[in-house]
Write a structure and sequence with these properties.
single chain, 7 helices, three-stranded parallel sheet, 6% strand, mainly alpha
Length: 174
Amino acid sequence: MIARDIALAELTRGKLHVAHLSTAGSVELVRQAKRRGLAVTAEATPHHLFLTEQAVEGYNTNAKMNPPLRREHDVEALREGLRDGTIDAIATDHAPHHADEKEVEFDHANFGVIGLETALPLALRLVDEASVPRAVLVRALTVAPARILGVARGTLAEGAVADVTIIDPAVVWR
């Protein structure tokens, strides 16, 4: 589907944003499209940057999501895509469900996972664990999503809306 959508964007000279990259192949398709100068942007979720299909072992419904979790080499490809700019943004895909909707048989459990509360702490872990520069993370969580959406936010430019969040990355919370 991503290859088809990139071909359509190229044919129509349109813009394409690919949501929730989850495989090494999808990262490579976006990378090649960008090299060809196409107006393609992409994002990945925090959970796809950390978790593998092993999280679903034992039919763990808390790890049932769409797209599904993949293999370790896919996680590493996503991280490399973030580092090299192929992946523009980190999007939470915040889709929490009540315990009653997750504590059922796997086939009946809703797709989705909490993303909002974990996005920043996981992104900060990428600095230490995956050699993702802090500036890349700030851009992926602020400026890039605003640019993709065409909204005047996510910048510290003079006269811009002051939508600033100050964090202490050393604070531990639960």
